[in-house]
Amino acid sequence: MEEFYSIQGEGYNTGQAAFFIRVGGCDVGCKWCDVKESWNATAFPPVSTDLVVQHAISYTAKSIVVTGGEPLLYNMDYLCHELHSHGIRIFLETSGSQPLSGKWDWICVSPKKDAPPLQELALQAHELKVIIHDQTDFQWGEEQSQLVSPSCLLYLQPEWSRHKTMMPEIIRYIHENPKWRISLQSHKYMHIP
For labelling, which of 117, 133, 164, 173 has a CA lying 20 to 30 Å from the CA of 144? Predict the structure, then answer.
């Protein structure tokens, strides 16, 4: 769908310069998605993977974030192999709804209620990022935290349109459940893509 150079704004890798590869197509379609235009893969002409790799390696950052839509609707083996051959670290942002392909340095699973993550993928997550839209999402997050490995970092992130309402609730919840951390969409606060 698009590629751009920016700063990672969410989760464990917040603050790092990174080249973003946004893949078109999504099998979940969250009502609060902030990139709904990514859902329809047919709206974007196919782009050569080799061309995307050439663009990525032209930037000074040695971190790539592959996001969507849902990247795992496609086989990511070749993309990951080519990026790794240039010494680049690759981070995946996925709902976890599709089987894993590719070799990743960091996997962030952000599960969605309409298409829960596959158990085998959840177990490989380095980071679980649960979006909090309303009170029911806390229990959903607890259920998802049972699917990941004990070493997986656990994040609660307010859904952007409700961040002012939900942030006090997230703070309260983390006080009571300190296994969780807060993730913010810091790029939105800083007004960067």
Answer: 164
CB 8 within 8 A of CB 14: yes
What is the DSSP secondary-structure string of 25-74? --SS--TT-S-GGGS-GGGS----HHHHHHHHHTSS--EEEEESS-GGGS
**Among 80, 71, 87, 93, residue whose Cα is nearest residue 12:** 93
Residues of the chain with pLDDT under 70: 32, 36, 39
Question: Which residue type occupies 172?
Answer: R
Structural domains of the chain ordered from first start = 2-189 (3.20.20.70)
Write the CB contacts of 54 (distance below 8 Å, at least 6 apart in sequence).
none
C-alpha radius of gyration, the chain, whole number:
16
